[in-house]
Amino acid sequence: MKHTIPMVAFMAMFSAHIFAAAAPQPYGALPGPAQLAWHELEQYAFCHFTINTFTDKEWGYGDEDPALFNPTDFDAAQIVGTAKAAGLKAFILTCKHHDGFCLWPTKTTEHNISKTPWKSGKGDIVREFSDAARRHGMKFGVYLSPWDRNSEIYGTPKYIEKLRSQLTELLSNYGDIFEIWFDGANGGDGYYGGARTTRHIDRTTYYDWPVTWALANKLQPGAVLFSDVGPGVRWIGNERGIAHYPCWATYTPKGRDGRLPGPGDVQHELGQGGTVDGAAWIPGECDVSIRPGWFYHAHQDDQVKTPKQLVDLYFASVGHGASFLLNLAPDRRGQLHQNDCYSLITYGKIMEQLFSKNLAEGAKASADQSREPNADNDFSAMRVLDGERSTYWATPDNTKSATLTLDLKGRQSFDVIRLREPIALGQRIRRFAIDVRVDGVWKEWVANGSSIGAHVLFRQTPVTADGVRVRILESAACPLISEVSLWKLPDSIPHHLPVALKPGELDRSGWKIHADFDSTEHPVAHAIDGNPRTFWCTHNGEAREHAPPQSLTIDFGKNETFDAIEVLPRQDNTVHAVVDRYAVQWSMDGKDWSKPLEGEFSNIRSNPIAQRIALPAPVTARHLKFTALRVLEKDNVTIAEIRLFSPS
Ligand code: FUL
Fold first, then answer.
1. Distance between CA 448 and CA 445 in Å, rounded?
2. Which of 183, 227, 233 should be mutated for ligand 1, with most atoms under 8 A from CB?
3. Considering the entire predicted model, what is its pTM?
């Protein structure tokens, strides 16, 4: 007995040592191998290109003649290559949309590509895209609509067999598939083999999803299965490409009626943020189209999202912890329109520039607590800087809060920070804040950090600092971090589409524009964005209108010579707030302005076309001021576009 106490103490010390040196235990729901691989993609392409491209519709009824599908100059490499240039890592094709038309020569229905004039019925669009994706080093995925408005047996159990046969064809004949996309949409009515009726199905039971999912898993074990409820990846709950923050990778789906949900029956709102400590690992995916519609419509050519909008979407999706599924809509040639190409390629360049230099490189990382190393793992704070997702800084068990500090290699200027947890061990951190050290003083930079998971990015006010500190305030299990990195966005991100310059028109891409009153709803930047539908408006929706005189000023960034100014009034069929008296002035330095040249826009009420102000003689200046002196009807000011022309 006499030896008991020292012996117990010795054992305790010994086991504490063993315990401390062991790797941390996983916490909560965990990702499977296919999900771990999927998390590394972060952003990838969707492609809606089928019969609707040729009928100008978003949903086909199912009665479309396959002969309509006839791209004049199909080029999978142009589409996939542009997606690659945008930095997208994979490509998911709508192999069959709701109209039931199959883009591959399926044995399950006559309603397919072999009945089209394209390549005399010998073509296979799924093959073309899957081959092109592989050639470009990108993964390939398939979208297969469960709803089929063409099939005469839709609504009967036999249709489920047909759907599974289609799935089997797609998953057996086109190589490795990384994601299978099951759409929850089901509008009821359709052609249904000529019945032209409405068919209701019970979304929770009709498709018998567990059996279909098991089939998919058997044929493609490396694929993640997408639907409103997963089981591999969940819908984020909107088609705007925006995840909530926090956005947990774990999720407990809830059905509308409280039953265990099937796809199409889930409370979508919940998908936006997931569930903290949710039942399963089902991370969110943000799907959004680069155009207003999912399919190509020529009248939307000027509404393609700009590079700036794509960057914003990246931060609202990947930045919040979800993935970014960006839809591309090839035109009737079977290629991406030049505006889409411009935005995608420019977006790719911006992101490449953003991630070209990690400003945390060369820093020294330390922590107030670190786990003891063992033979396999070091667990030190320096692991957050080694660029490896699988290595990480770890704290001792039972730790719930800790601080990690980076002493940067000198002063660094940055505006983006990315954090990662080693997700193979679960999503653990619940709350954190980030400070930066500026001139020796710590200042809070990110206040409300919560979810991290595979990735979270914060785009903040640019700062020049020599230290960064991550304060973990709450964690469900001892916190682990595999990456802290710092980045700087390029100074200028194009916020307009390229528009063919009119003869003599000055290029507006480097211009900076400013207004006396700049509204958030209709910013003055709209006056030089090349889009005639958008406009600057000094009424911001609130009670107060900002009445004339109202000025906008433009800095060309260099001296320009011009002899005409063109002003386009708003083009939305109203004369409210349309300018009909103006003054223009110019300046070399933005301080000393020329005498105002005043004038009127005659007949603008009846004919609101572009108005040309011809200057008496060519002017060389760096700045222009346009002042609206009077408007029609309302008490605020609107301008759709302002352009300058050099002397011919
Ligand atoms: C929706 C569909 O109804 C749209 O047509 C599109 O395919 C989109 C990605 O999913 O639910």
1. 10
2. 183
3. 0.80
